[in-house]
Amino acid sequence: MKKNLFVLSSIASLLIISCSDDDSLELTTCDDGDCDPVETTIDNPDSYVFTRDNESTVSFDGQTTRLKMGAEILSAFTDVTSTSDQILSMYAHEEGANDFEETELNASDKSVKSKTAASADFFSTNATDQTLIRADFDGFITAQVNEVFPNWEVAASAGVAGQIADGSSTRYVNAQGLEYNQAFNKGLIGALTLDQIINNYLSTAVLDEGDNRADNDANVVAEGEIYTNMEHKWDEAYGYVYGLNADAANPNDDLGADSFLNKYVGRVERDDDFAGIADEIFQAFKLGRAAIVAKQYDVRDAQAEIIKEKLSEVIGIRAVYYLQQGKNSLNQETPDFGGAFHDLSEGYGFVYSLQFTRKTNSTEPYFTKEEVDAFLADLMDDGENGLWDVEAATLDAISADIAARFSFTLEQAAE
Question: Where are the beta strands (DSSP E) in 105-222?
């Protein structure tokens, strides 16, 4: 066990947080300059392992289930035998319906749609935007079946849906060059996984709901369970990032275990400009969970803010990256439309996800829904054929606007 030392005052405003070379953390608090510190030791394990009475208290089965459902839904986007009703039913799964290949998923009462744009902080009182966002994902599904599937063997061209080569891969685009499966996938990274993590489970409205804090203080576990409600809520956030890792207790060993946040935390980690971000996210999850065990809620909330910042950065970085990669493919002497449209479709989805990001110590996203909708319109309206007509200046302008809200530069994210 690593021991992280926290020096605390019972009546306090936070002054100093410092990390030493041995990973210990010292936190000093004072009130009006008068310090009366009390030492509290938090046992912060090397891996995400927490127990009570020698049993694991970590549980995020629901998140693993939804990640698996998401993977099968994405596969259906490239199965031309699928109907829109079938894919829509997968997305809005009902318990017992025969929607998936995996029988355990069919038996589940979980669904992806029910958790799309469903966070306590952003959507509990915003049914209008929630309805519009869910309609977007329904629309990606029906458009894939109605527009792209009929032209599966047709060569795509400006104004014509169909297939287009991208090196050794074949992409399937609509008449404007957009891959609906990429818009669905990358948009869901924000609308499902990110929104549930940073705007729901890591929200104090959820962590401290009802008697959660008093129960956690008294080690009162949820009915029939080994964990407290607060512990479980934190674990559910963790599960949306690491729910499909082979070893979820040490997830950075196999980043890329799913097609959602896990994959792109890994992609950003491999960029030298952002190396270390994966460990920052993991350490914050781990220390925040340890702080819950130690009943140190200021520490918990500080770690939640780190997670919000870093996961939001992942979305912003990848949005800029794909827009710039698409621009580069279009700017070749002989434009690589297949590669460009694939990157730009991924960029479209990550731009869509910006509305679910969260500024640190704030109730606001980095970009509002209105700003995101304007970006998406700009991507598609340089000409009547959408991405076939998009201009480098448009891609640069959107990229610059995104980078300006974050702490990275366009150049850093583009590489």
Answer: 162-166, 169-173
